[in-house]
Design brief:
heterodimer; A: mainly alpha; MetI-like fold; 13 helices; 2 strands; 70% helix; 3% strand; B: mainly alpha; 2 domains
Amino acid sequence: MRRIDLSRIPGARWGVISSPYLWMLLFFLLPFIIVARISVAEAQLSIPPFSALFQWAADRLTIEISFASYQWLVADDTYFRAYWQSIQIAFFSTLLCILIGYPVAYTIARAPAHTQPTLLLLILLPSWTSFLIRVYAWMGLLSNRGLINQALVGMGITDGPIQMLNTNFAVYVGVVYAYLPFMILPLYANLVKHDNTLLEAASDLGARKIISFFRITLPLSKNGLIAGSMLVFIPVVGEYVIPELLGGRRTLMIGKVLWQEFFNNRDWPLAAALALVMILILLIPIMIFMRVQQKELEGRR
Amino acid sequence: MKSLTFTRCMFWFGILFLYLPMVILIIYSFNAGRNVQVWAGFSTHWYGEVLRDRQLMAALGRSLRVAFFSATAAMLLGLLASIAIIRMKRFRGRGLLSGMVTAPLVMPDVIIGVSLLMLFVSLQQAIGWPQGRGLNTVFIAHTTFCVAYSTVVISSRLRELDESLEEAAQDLGATPVSTFFQVTLPIIWPALLSAWLLSFTLSLDDVVIASFVTGPGATTLPIEVFSSVRLGVSPKINALATMIILVISLIAFTSWYVTRRIDIRNRRQQLAYQREME
């Protein structure tokens, strides 16, 4: 087979590859190196608020590396608890998204072919509107004088309002609400490709529907499940807006801690160290996601 | 079909869960009273209040400008990245490129924001560019993460496109460039449009990354909204939210409808072409 031969135009091939390449190298990869470098600087009252890595003093180049930020990270157990709680919240919300998202994706994939795009649109439309507004909508619903509490008290189920806003419960609701479409979409994309004859064969051989689901459909949907789970889990670990708006004082998530260290305490090296440790924690999930996605992106040939 | 009832129930529960909060928000945006939780009659008072707010409108203008340019740049870079990954099979560092356009899809916003800000500050120290931070740095940041999304959209369409169409054009003597403009582009342009619109709405929606990389006098609409939302629920924000919801869903719905119709037509033509080839 002949490939498209762009080499006939000098520089064209190089230009096509290098422009996105250079952009992403400069603005996506290089920043991580800068973050690593600032994480070993010392915080100081200057602009920018960290010490320089190289210094010329007495005709000699000295390199200053300080692990003060990392020592802080270990010494104060707030940071450890924040990482741990972020991972917990991300993990359980991913599970919740699977529990709600799988049946939804399954229903769409099993619907008649001509209604599928409409059902999919129905699911995706809310996710195109602002993320901020979707989280904000829950602030009003969950507050002490909000609609849910009004209904609970009005129906006589509880005597007084239940504190829901500014708790971890609200964070879970917000996360599942905001990230559910990211679970449904890859799952649907996977489930819709399944060959129905496998299920028919199973039922011809006497397998019950529930059995053939667990032995055929579920294993086949592994890649969609992984992609969806990673699309939820990884960003939620670093989530800032949801814990800030819906969480309470006891909600300790690392994205919020990083934000506070950066904006309120102006401690850039500590914020850089926090970001770097977060990347290290997320490295394995990100690698898993990239492998699944790359298979998808490059196609299996 | 007994087992279907459970999944169908879950489906409608899911739909209800997704839509109910929005519907309630929209209803309460027409509340006349200042108190958000108590219904005090129908009024469009708060909509007027939003439209008269100079600060909000200025922020909206800035956001639209940044979103327009970021979406355009991201679409072009995403197209080039897709061609490089899908059509140019062998070049050094291809794995790195597809990694770099995949990772931003899941990278937490705070990490992208903090690392880009540190890059901008360090670059300014080292080479004097970019001079300060403002809309230009927000543009760079938004373009960077939107490239990832637009590459996903465009490359999935490009992969589906039958390569033999392009090969046929070249066998008939077309240059690669004219093949691209006369064969490839007319088929994949709905994907380009989707990529542009997706990037546009993502840029319009971002609050975390913009908070990090923006500078004085360059607050975008989400930053403005976020700072007032932090203080609690207000009917004015409800009205603004309703306007945003309606405008964005209208754009999204139209683009979905148009691209679907065109896609169906293109697929039919391609099918007819393939049949003729056989």
